[in-house]
Amino acid sequence: MTAWTAPQAKPINRREMLAQVCKTLLAYPLLNLALIGASCSGSKNGNSTQPPPVSDDQFLDQMEQAALLFFWEQASPTTGQVKDRAFATGINDTRTVSSIAATGFGLTALCIAAQRGYMPGSQIQARVLATLNFVWNQLPQQNGFFYHFVDMNTGQRAFNSEVSSIDTSILLCGVLTCRKYFQDSQIQSLATQIYQRVNWPWMLNGGAAFSMGWTPESGFLPARWDTYSELMMIYLLAIGSPTFPVPASSWNAFARPSITFQGYTYISGNDPLFTHQYSHAWFDFRNKQDAYANYFNNSITATQAHKAFCLSLAGQFRDYQNNLWGISASDSQNGYVVWGGPPAMGPIDGSIVPCAAGGSIAFVPADGIAVLRNIENAYPNAWRRYSFVDAFNPLTGWYDADALGIDLGIATLMAENYRTAFVWNTFMKNPEPQAAMRAVGFK
Question: Phi and psi at residue 313, in whole multiples of 5°?
Fold first, then answer.
């Protein structure tokens, strides 16, 4: 089989990109794009250059396929490690820093690509196997935990980053998704070994709540995962571990404060919107409740409150409106910032962060899709080779030059969960997450 190679990237808008892709379909017959059909057919006489409107499902399919290109092209084919960020055009990006969280999202995205036939399954499976081989045999680790940022080619620590409990957990969620999706004994064995190597009690560092990380220079970070956020995956993976578990009572180690905004009351640690998304990308909290909450419904309420918060700023930032909202930790004109609300946090300046709505599609599908379709239609410079740029500001005309792996990842996984529940259904076939959720009292 001829190796699949993506078409050469060009800095073009989305409709031009679709036309380019359609021309290459004959060269890549196994690239089963949903762009075939309405988006490529034009009018009956073939003279139209404007594709007719696509359905919401077709739009999401196009978004997922474009994001897949990031996880395929912006990763080392040898190590499988995915870049933290890359130029949104896909052109001439020489950066080599990988994020292990982006790799975790990427492994899951590859499962989606294989399931949907976006690429030849044999090539996807080979990339997954190479990734897991490298993670198990060569990627530096401490008690099974990995550095937040590494060089994508060598795996060596980058930026003096920490051994990260949350980013390791995101990687493990991708690893375990692959274990259940691919019926390959090597992939399954490697995934199991990677997960079972993690010494979860070590990361507790003698406390009840997990440390956020460790460095060889200073030891454990003083900050702990002790307040509700994206942390649920850490605790559930640890409680479900068959080799180095923590007690189920650890589930009670983090606080669950509530906030109220414009009549919306929900559990939140006053964090950016992504904290209500990440654990939900893999763990299926739908129609389940523990002693504290229905966390899926909680994320719905948090998203509704966030939309209301953005609309409350319309007097100051006139771009915020019913189909254009969403602020989450992202790039800005002044670098990477943690911003959002309620309550207001960070130097909010009218920027729009597409993954805020994208990562919320499973919670508020109509609202989330409306935002993304509006961005794609009204702000064509916000769509590049890998779907949406990380952020843009309609008021100043600034468009981020980069796409970020974790932000493309959360939008892709949640779009697929909304469409088919594929990630939820695949990940939750693992016995460890099931056992952990039972142990902490989900019913």
Answer: -95, 5
